Amino acid sequence: MANLWRVYLRVFLTFAANSLVRDMSFRANFLIQCISSTSWAVMNLGFYLIIFVHVDEIGPQTGWGKYEFFVFLGTTWIVNSLVQTLFMPNMHEFSELIRTGNLDFALLKPIDTQFLISFQRIEWSSLANALLGVVVVAVGMHQLMTRPEHPLPLSAVTIALYLFYILCGVTILYSLMISLASTSIWLGRNQTLYDFWFYITNFSRYPMEMYRHGWGVVLWGFFTFVVPVLLVINIPARVLARPLYPDPSVAWPLAAFTLVATVGSLIVSRAIFCRAIGSYRSASS
Amino acid sequence: MNVSAVFSWLQRLRTWWVILKISLEERLVYRGDFMLGTLMRFLPIITQIFLWNAVFQAAGKSTIVGYQFRDVVAYYLLTMVSRAFSSMPGLASGIALQIRSGEVKKFLVQPVDMLTFLLAGRVAHKLAYYSVAVLPFALVFFVCRGYFNGVPPVDVLVAYVLALVMGFLLGFFLESCIGLIGFWFLEVSSLLFVYMLLSFFLSGHMFPLDLLPHPWNRVVDFLPLKYVAYFPAAVFLGKVPRELLWRELAIEAAWIVVFIVLGRLMWRAGVNRYSGYGG
What we know:
The complex is a heterodimer. Chain A has helices at 2-25, 27-54, 66-86, 88-100, 103-108, 113-119, 127-145, 156-182, 184-187, 191-202, 216-226, 230-241, 251-278.
């Protein structure tokens, strides 16, 4: 078993190295991609800075003030950029493999098919956003930890929990992504599904308190318990920035549930993937 | 007008009719997929509604720079309409690709002007788009009618329609100029990206431009970008004072002329330095 893990790790590292070599052979392009993805992020930051010119927090008494929101925004970039680095190009490739029938070759390889198609290509340039996210989180945290009243404590445990929940978030998004991509085996064409991906994750990018009144509760329930994308960024950001500090009671039940949701979505997506591969009928080749 | 001139005009109309028909048919092949896609484009507005609701509640006042909560939502819905007119997906990159691949040669030999041809194609494309998209748009606006203060008076409505049509023209000529840069740089995609980025932020697609703090709200006033998203929406919502309405439209028309002339000049200069290697 340990041996098997080592093999998979080595394969993964080879994929990573190959992708890096490939990216580095087009260095100018690499740089442009880094700049373009970070500039979208910076623009987003600009949007919120403009909002914070007019208000002090997002939602009354939610505690999402300017610097708490910096942490939230930085976390958004970190999670999304990890997903884009690791999985976005692969999922795109996956539906191409299905359409062209080249999935046959992936199926023939003596390695788990889901592993192979999930990690084959790594887009290093997307990591630029994660770096920017770390910077913004650091700035936000610095401000929160040095504010005059209720300076925010930060322990090693908090950081460990933060990193752990970021991983959970990436896993949930991956599960959703592979499930959506798998459906292209049945549908053939899935352009709309990609838009769908964008629009679903769009719901995850805001503090969840926002949805907690009127018919937003329905959305909140759906995106927490059915398609748990709301947990992806809210939980890690909340663990770190603690918007309601010193009241810690709010986040923990949801944090516990996030664990269940992560394991659950991984299992469900694996099942969907296997079902989809089962009905794959190849294409003309 | 002699017979041959009339005949040539008829020919031209027939060409446009054919382009129109082909574009329409292309669009209608996947109409279910397309309508669903258009409807989904409104999904981000849902999160915007919640976000701005939270912002207005936290602000503790009913208006922010003259916008009520309902106005902001209406604004976002209206910019979707503005963008439906002014966005030109694939135009600039298409022109640059034709220059790079040498396809542009056909416009040098044939008695067809490239920009006119592209404009005709784009009009057809847009008409085809509206003929299907009008259903999801109508549905969303009907559902969201509570965010609007009824229909504006006739003269504002006329100005609004003009602003939309001119937004289409401005979007077309502005982006075709970016595409024509392809005569000088082979790859315009990164330049196009910068344009898209600036346009998203400064055209008012992302937020009502009135929210910008002081020096910036003056800066965007002097840029043509505000006419492709912000301006039509602001006209509809009555944010543009009635006495300034026609002056603003005239400035927009001037911008269109600027980009038409610039496009012509760039085309002339570009063709002069163009060398069509290969097949």
